[in-house]
Design a protein that fits this description.
alpha+beta, single chain, 4 strands, 3 domains, Glutaredoxin, 4-stranded mixed β-sheet, about 300 residues
Length: about 300
């Protein structure tokens, strides 16, 4: 039994070896025959050779690899440059400037200084024309009338503002009151209290001090978290208006309170909040331009 089994196994291995030799050698022979021509055509490479695969072509060139076109003013006349659209002119100016910085030759710098001089002259021409138009149509652009620059005019304007503020505050005390929110641990509150004492003595206003520690509900109602804070309220009006947070001087308090009174009274809005009454329907009144019936750029002849 042992001899027979060994013989059987030996015979099976022999058969398998024969099959492998036949098919394996045949495949190798076929491959050799198929690549024989390639081998003899490229005999220097030998049977075993390797080459790096070709690099993938880059779709985009590296920055700065492409040479830039030379910019020159030879293609333009002086009239072309003078009448050129501002966007095109600015683009050309930037290009000429960068070229002069990169290559500071005599010609490049000369062209840059030339086009820069044209830009300066265009700005100067606009300034001259703007002065001419504002003087010719002074009834449309009345800035000097309500905001003079001469010394006597400035004095008169400041006096008009002070008179209007004082009149508004004296009239406003009848139906307005100031709420003064303080905190016992706030050292700034005492300084503000001293300033408010002068204000009350000058105008006779009602001033109610609210301690946010003792009256947290009042502070929460008006969303007060910082002291000292001044808040303006008006009789019959549920809306309130903050006047100042922190220590504020008397003159600034008067101006802010004046603006708050006018706002709660509906005399101003957010877009003309700083307007004084004597400036209404003037060049400083943003809404006054909507009152005109004609187009300013087509004045009657």
């Amino acid at each position: 039994m042992t001899f027979a089994t060994r013989q059987y196994l030996f015979g099976k291995c022999l058969v398998l070896s024969s099959l492998f030799f036949y098919f394996g050698f045949g495949a190798i022979a076929a491959h050799a025959a198929d690549s024989a021509d390639h081998f003899y055509d490229k005999s220097r490479q030998g049977w075993f050779w390797y080459e790096d695969p070709p690099a993938a072509a880059q779709d985009q060139e590296e920055p700065g690899a492409k040479p830039r076109d030379t910019i020159t003013l030879d293609a333009f006349s002086m009239e072309d440059l003078w009448n050129m659209h501002p966007d095109d002119f600015q683009s050309l100016l930037n290009g000429v400037q960068k070229q002069a910085v990169q290559f500071p030759t005599e010609q490049n710098v000369l062209e840059y200084l030339t086009i820069q001089d044209i830009a300066r002259r265009k700005a100067l021409a606009y300034t001259h024309t703007a002065s001419y138009v504002t003087q010719k149509y002074s009834d449309l652009f009345r800035m000097n009338q309500v905001y003079p620059t001469a010394g006597p005019g400035i004095t008169a304007r400041v006096q008009m503002q002070r008179d209007e503020i004082a009149e508004t505050l004296n009239l406003g005390k009848a139906d307005h009151a100031l709420l003064f929110f303080v905190n016992p641990r706030c050292s700034y509150c005492e300084k503000q209290r001293q300033i408010l004492a002068y204000f009350v003595e000058k105008y006779g206003w009602q001033l109610r001090t609210v301690d946010i520690v003792k009256e947290p509900d009042a502070a929460a109602r008006f969303n007060i978290t910082v002291t000292p804070t001044l808040l303006l309220i008006k009789r019959g009006n549920p809306e309130s208006m903050p006047v100042a947070t922190g220590v504020i001087a008397l003159s600034e308090l008067e101006r802010k309170l004046y603006r708050a009174i006018r706002y709660l009274s509906g005399m101003t809005g957010s877009d003309n909040f700083l307007l004084y009454d004597f400036q209404t329907d003037s060049a400083l009144d943003p809404r006054s331009i909507l009152n005109g019936k004609s187009q300013p750029w087509n004045p009657p002849q």
